[in-house]
Structure formats: structure tokens, C-alpha cells
Amino acid sequence: MNLSLQDKTAVVCGSTQGIGLATAKELALLGANMVLVARNEEKLRETITILDQKQGQKHQYLVADFAHPQQVQEAIEKFAIKNQVHILVNNTGGPDPGPAIDADIEAFRIAFNTHLICNQIMVKALVPGMKTLGYGRIINVISTSVKQPLPNLGVSNTIRGAVANWSKTLAMELGRFNITVNNVLPGATETGRLSQIMKNKAIKSGSTVDDIKHEMSEEVPMKRLAQPEEIANAIAFLASPAASYINGINVPVDGGRTLCL
Questions:
Q1: Mean pLDDT over all residues of the chain?
Q2: CA distances from 259 to 186, 205, 230 (A)
């Protein structure tokens, strides 16, 4: 099975922490030249230094804040003028928790821009190069909520569903160019974002963070939370030549927590 990404170039968004960082590390280990995208330039510089370079890889970064789509567009379009990319991993932190009925209209607008609009900007800039190369992998890191809406994540459930359908539409449009478009759906994963969510739950409920973590783990058949590297492994496979005929699917990486097939 060919998992090598040598001589491939990959753009990974949100790549200085959590799932994005784990993904950047894994793709680099497989030989990819990495292009990291995040808003904090200091963290981007630090991340570049820890990526594997044993196969002659060359790594670089773009500074862009996905809360500002125009900034993302300027950065990626400037990059795409002189560079072609084989792999794009769209990955952005989710909206704040809370019931959909209580969410401000502005919260939906911000989430729509941060996720779907910025994803579209990235794709429009990089797909022409993928067509020229005859190899394209677009992988969107979303959520298991596209299969089964999660309680108290009203805005996230809504926006993630929109991204999933956008992705499926692209898969139908781009498959003829040897460009695949797939979604990875992480379950509860031990990242900084989840730590903050558990802290907030603990404060509101009067429980400890360990209690909240135990409750969340008990909801998973495997009785534990995911590690970011386990999500990255699924992304890396979908980015590889081995996944050449996998297109337009949702891949839950959740330890079996999602009840539906």
C-alpha cells in the first residue's frame, strides 16, 4: 500500500495545535512538503522547526486568521500564484457551545464565514493547481455532528452540516480531475479546545474536570477519548495515493460513539 507523500505538497489549516498540528507532523513524516496556515506567526515558526525533514522536505507557512476571510483570501491567492499543492486539509476550531435557539444571528454569520466561506476560498485558490498536477486530496475536518447532532452545540451542528454537504457537492464536481474530497469526523479528542469545554462544564455543574472527562469517556464504546494523532492518521490515509478511489464520504474517528451507521 502506497502511503508515501514524497514530492507532494500539503496545506494544513489550524496547524499549530491539536488535530492540525498532529496532521502536519504525520504528513511530514510521510514525506510531504508542508505549508502551515494559522494566525499566530510565532507558533508557526516554532512548528516548522519540529516537522520531519529527513526526506528533503521543505516547509513554509502562511499567516492568516480565519475569522477574517479577506485576509485568508489574500494570503492563499498570493501563495497560489507561484505554488501548486496536492493536498488541502481544512481544519478550523468550532463555534462556542450553546443551544441553537439562544444563539445570536451574528454567531451563525461568523461561523459560516470561518468555516464554509474560508474553506471555499482555499479550494478555489488551490484546485487549479491540483488539476494541473493530476492529483488532489481535499480533506475537511468537521465533526460527528453531521451524522448525529450533538447536544448544546447548535451553531456548530448547523455549520458543520453545511460544510459536509458542500464537500459532497465538490466531490461530485472534481472527481473527474483525480481530485477527491472527503470529511473526517473526530469524536471527543484530547485537544486544548476540549480541555476548555470540560473546564466550563465542570464549573457549571460543580463537578471536577476529571469527572467530566470520565463521563465523556463512558459515552464511547472504547471508554477513552481520542488522541489528536489518531485523527491525523485517518487524514493522512485519505491524503495518500492508497486512498485514490475513496471520494465523497464522511469518516467518523470517534471510537464508535456515533450511534448511526
A1: 96
A2: 14, 26, 20
